[in-house]
Amino acid sequence: MKRSEINAALREMEEMCRRHCCYLPPFCNFTPEEWKERSHEYDEVRECMLGWDITDYGLGKFDEVGFSLITIRNGNRAMAKKYPKVYAEKLLYLREGQYSPNHFHWYKTEDIINRGGGNVLIRVYNSLPGEEKDLEGDVTVHMDGRTYTVPAGTQIRLTPGESIHIQQRAGRCFWGRSASAMTTPMTTVSCRQWGGSPKSKRTSRHTGYCVTSTRKRSERIWGAYIWSSRTAGQSSFSV
Description:
- By secondary structure, the chain is mainly β.
- The protein is 13% helix and 41% strand.
- The strands form three sheets. Strands 1, 2, 3, 4, 5, 6, 9, 10, 11, 14 and 15 form an eleven-stranded antiparallel sheet that branches.
- The longest helix is centred in the first third of the chain and has 17 residues, at 3-19.
- It starts with a helix and ends in a 7-residue tail after the last helix.
- The model is unreliable at 193-223 and 228-239 (pLDDT under 50).
């Protein structure tokens, strides 16, 4: 992604936050110059990787595949004594039509909450023991106190205020519909310190951004597994 694209995505998410009265912590507004002046008092931001992430999954099609995200709070399992927090909170912004590919997490559970804007569509699957997408098994869905079962590949619609609980190894892809949407993923600790992740480029305009390389479209990324046509029998980008 070009620097201009990243800055535009940052400004767009900031405007969405203002529109929905979602106030961000001060570190989200530090400039690179201000960060140079910050002491070890802000090591938690650095060591728990708080702040901005803008990703196009290395595909160069940010308007179609990717999203903007802010990690507001997080722990660090590699430094558990210093940062014992066992949960994470994020803000995730999806433009209308923007898509996050099919994936599951080995270790994380999460709740995805639609905080405002348009609808969020989530297609759900189970994963098989060999990490393939289960195209046949029914999926148990947990939404706002309701538990029910749907066929594999069912599209779940989250309107503003609705949420879904995603368990470990439960697969999903999601995208915005009707208008741009703001969601809050509440998860167990997001551990980018775990091994098996591809190299990423990281720099700072506030806290930073991250562009993840997924050249094979099937990668282990920060404790996640992204399905591809080779592993799943169909393209993870078919929605």
